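Long-time lurker, first post. I've been practising inverse folding by hand and with some scripts of my own, and I keep getting stuck on stretches where the structure tokens seem ambiguous. Below is the full token string for one chain I'm working on. Before anyone asks, I'm not after the true native sequence, just a reasonable design that respects the backbone. If someone could post their per-position residues I'd love to compare against what I wrote down in my notebook.
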């Protein structure tokens, strides 16, 4: 039986731990630098808790590790797992900076037999997968372009509860790297490689206690000539559903909760989305457990996991380019 461990026992770990339990995987230990969160997770699951991931690796010797730490704590933990020969599933973003992500890619290259995945679970959404298959089928003709909105709500309390989220040196940034990264990843996955990115990131609503952006506009030029625009903010008064609209020669695809495809001849097709994972937040979507299950299913596959650090770095590069354009 495969055994696993979770490093970082904060908000998102709840979804990972629930998925591990439901999938019948043996949790062998948890790790958190914060004693209270470490103790809470250890006692909830009746497993040993460790203050450092190296002790966990040495003492528990898990078969897999989930990395659910703040952004700037992903790469060191993941590299130590790879060096110990332990497959590792890393939460998004792959890293808080592109150079850090490159360091992880190099480590993965030195350990080609050790599996690594990045938790960009929205690629498992029913709507995204259906849109991907339709766009690749050729049935819709060429993709002309798209637009996306991420209109979410984060109070100052969200940053006060976890100061790293509002500190660029730890998080790498705000709404783009923390929230809209999933949508940017989907836009590139669905519409094709991005050849040019232009954008602006600003802070309008959050007070001076954070140094990350709360709002951003992005223009993406995709290979093949499609163009997309993305507007992301955490200054909205509520967490609205993410919208993605894609216009092709023969149809318009709209994802907002479900997917609606409207064909040029007036026909429509609807695809419903799954309900959200237990223990998670609605806006995280319903696909964490699917990605986690797929990662475990693929443990003995000969080829690398399909969402590895080379996939994860794509949206991170776009985001970092936008930050550079603003500095
Ligand atoms: N995929 C998604 O939809 C999704 C949703 C939410 C969060 N996330 C990601 O999950 C990660 C964690 O986010 P969160 O909101 O749970 O943060 P959090 O602050 O609630 O939890 C992080 C935990 O890691 C611990 N920690 C920090 N450094 C550590 C280290 N070196 N070793 C062990 N533990 C350490 C902290 O004490 C904290 O308990 C982030 O990368 C975030 O972007 C992803």
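-- Answer (accepted) --
I ran through it position by position. Result:
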């Amino acid at each position: 039986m495969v055994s696993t461990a979770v490093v970082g026992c904060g908000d998102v770990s709840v979804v990972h731990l629930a998925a591990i339990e439901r999938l019948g995987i043996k949790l062998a230990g948890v790790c958190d630098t914060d004693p209270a969160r470490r103790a809470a997770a250890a006692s909830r699951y009746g497993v040993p808790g460790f203050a450092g991931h190296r002790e966990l690796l040495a003492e528990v010797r898990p078969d897999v590790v989930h990395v659910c730490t703040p952004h700037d704590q992903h790469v060191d933990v993941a590299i130590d797992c790879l060096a110990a020969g332990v497959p590792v599933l890393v939460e998004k973003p792959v890293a808080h900076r592109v150079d850090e992500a490159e360091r992880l890619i190099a480590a993965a290259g030195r350990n080609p037999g050790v599996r690594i995945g990045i938790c960009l679970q929205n690629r498992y959404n029913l709507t995204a997968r259906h849109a991907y298959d339709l766009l690749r089928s050729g049935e819709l003709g060429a993709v002309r372009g798209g637009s996306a909105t991420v209109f979410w709500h984060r109070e100052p309390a969200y940053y006060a509860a976890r100061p790293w989220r509002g500190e660029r040196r730890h998080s790498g940034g705000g709404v783009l790297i923390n929230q809209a990264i999933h949508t940017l990843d989907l836009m590139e996955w669905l519409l094709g490689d991005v050849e040019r990115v232009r954008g602006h990131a600003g802070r309008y609503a959050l007070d001076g206690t954070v140094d990350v952006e709360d709002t951003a506009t992005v223009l993406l030029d995709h290979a093949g000539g499609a163009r997309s625009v993305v507007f992301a903010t955490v200054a909205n008064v509520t967490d609205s559903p993410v919208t993605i609209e894609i216009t092709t020669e023969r149809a318009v695809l709209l994802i907002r909760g479900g997917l609606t495809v409207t064909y040029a001849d007036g026909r429509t097709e609807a695809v419903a989305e799954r309900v959200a994972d237990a223990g998670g937040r609605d806006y995280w979507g319903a696909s964490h457990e699917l990605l986690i299950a797929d990662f475990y299913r693929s443990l003995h596959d000969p080829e690398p996991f399909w969402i590895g650090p080379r996939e994860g770095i794509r949206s991170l590069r776009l985001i970092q380019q936008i930050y550079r354009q603003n500095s």
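A couple of notes from the structure itself: The pocket of nicotinamide-adenine-dinucleotide is lined by residues 7-13, 31-34, 37, 53, 68-71, 73, 91-92, 119, 121, 162, 178, 284 (CB under 6 Å). The first strand starts at residue 3 and ends at 7. Happy to go over any region you disagree with.
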